[in-house]
Amino acid sequence: MKKLITLIIAFGFISISSYAQDYTKFQMQRATLFSNYITEQMGLNETEKKFVYDVMLARIYNANTKIQSGNLTASEDKRAVYSAEYKTAQEKLADKFGAKMARKMMTLSNEARKKAEKK
After folding, report:
1. Domain segments of the chain as ranges
2. pTM for the model
3. What's the CA gap between 93 and 65, in Å, rounded?
4. What percentage of the chain exceeds 70 in pLDDT?
């Protein structure tokens, strides 16, 4: 019985680790930039900040994955992917914070991106 439980736990860890996503340093830095800026501007608590970070990281990761897997090079194609991921992120934020706050958060993420690009 103990061996069976150990075996089940081992398979659980193996299956979880095989589905783990590998985020790049850039993706994590970008999500941190966005979530920190949004938190500063809106006065979010740590739990809310973590949620915003997770949404932004998923947005960045998913866009990058779709662009690379589709081998997209045209700016119009990339723009369509970014737009779709933007909408998805906004919907996730709206589910937790409401539509008005979600729009504000997405606007702030764009603002943070533009400020970072100017540096």
Report:
1. 23-118
2. 0.78
3. 21
4. 82
Distance (Å) of CA 95 to CA 2, 16, 51, 82, 103:
42, 26, 12, 20, 12
Question: What is the number of H-type helices and E-type strands within the chain?
Answer: 5, 0
Three-state DSSP at 105 gives: helix
In Å, how far from its chain's centre is CA 38? 14
> Cα separation of 97 and 103, whole Å?
10
DSSP letter string, 31-87: HHHHHHHHHHHHT--HHHHHHHHHHHHHHHHHHHHHHHHTT--SHHHHHHHHHHHHH
Burial 102-119 (b: 16+ CB within 10 A, else e): bebbbebbeebeeeeeee
**pLDDT tens digits along 3-28:** 545 545 555 555 444 445 789 999 99
> Tokens standing for 86?
């933007």
